[in-house]
Amino acid sequence: MTNLHLHLSLFLLCLTPSFSLYQPAYLDSPSQFVDMVYHMGPVLTSPINLYPIWYGQWNPNPQSIIRDFLLSLSSFSLPSPSVPEWWHTATQYTDQTNSNVTSFFNIISEHHDTNYSHGNSLTRLSIQSVINSAVTDYPNPLPLDPTNGVYLVLSSPEVQVQDFCRAVCGFHYFTFPSIVGTTVPYAWIGHSGTQCPGTCAYPFAAPPSGSGYQILGSPNGDIATDGMISVIAHELAEMATNPYINGWYAGDDPTAPNEIGDLCEGIYGTGGGGGFVGNVFKSSDGVGYNLNGVNGRKFLVQWIWDRVRQNCYGPNAVVN
């Protein structure tokens, strides 16, 4: 097999490890059953340069919510519990040199693909072609940044993506040089507003699987976009700790790894799991959040696996 065929085979097998359909989680207390293992590959230790690619027709308000979340990641003066405090759990993970995952993010440049360069129905593999179009666009291409770059393909509500709403709400992987020209980590996250808010914007919309789930008001008044925030956070944490599918994950099969976000889906606070989001802040009108961001924003973001505590954790955890 050629290297491209090998990459394609692994790519197709590995596309399930990411933010999947809502599954109640339970690992908010120390667990001896999770063996989070380092597989000797790189993690993202240098400051991360973010390159959002807005694919399709985006309105300014949801873009502003997402942009404010990304800007919050390295805004260290925010009141607690904050987005940077949430990210601190990801920085516990190290590489072979014992260097930690970075705490620093910069939005370097954005690309607006309003003309659907690859149509309004995308395959998983064609997400890489969207990135290629962005970095080769004339006259304003995105920089191709193989050293510190992370590319976020964010599809608008009308864009359909293979397996979206059926198997995944987002995924991350790395680009193939044969398509993009180099290898860089990337993620795709879809806007579920007109397609599956109950699937990909829980807990702001009820899952289609039935009753008994705790539903909260969205902190920024946009159910689907607030749902996207947690998926974006999930994918960023997994890209930073497992960018090339040979970093940190539980299990022995790289085609089906349990990454630091996968283990904690559905947990947003102490006691979360089984349809209960956990102990989070709630306003009198039912709006729920667990993190503070820039410009007075509030966000509700799932917890991630804490390597030291050996359980899912976030900065809004209730201390006994």
Question: How would you portray this structure in words?
Answer:
The protein has 320 residues and is an alpha/beta fold. It contains seven helices and 16 strands. It has helices spanning 3-14, 60-72, 83-88, 126-136, 177-180, 197-200, 223-241; strands spanning 36-38, 48-55, 105-107, 111-113, 121-122, 149-155, 160-161, 170-174, 185-190, 248-250, 281-282, 288-289, 291-292, 298-299, 304-306, 311-313. Strands 2, 3, 4, 6, 8 and 9 form a six-stranded mixed β-sheet that branches. The longest helix is centred in the C-terminal third of the chain and has 19 residues, at 223-241. The model is unreliable at 1-17 and 20-26 (pLDDT under 50).
Structural class: alpha/beta
| pLDDT < 50 stretches | 1-17, 20-26
Mean pLDDT: 91
Beta-strand share of residues: 15-25%
Ends apart, CA distance between termini: 56 Å
Q: What gyration radius follows from the Cα positions, in whole Å?
A: 18 Å
Order of helices and strands: HEEHHEEEHEEEHEHHEEEEEEE
Specify the number of helices: 7
Major pleated sheet: 6 strands, mixed
The strand count comes to: 16
Percent range for helical residues? 10-25%
Envelope shape: globular
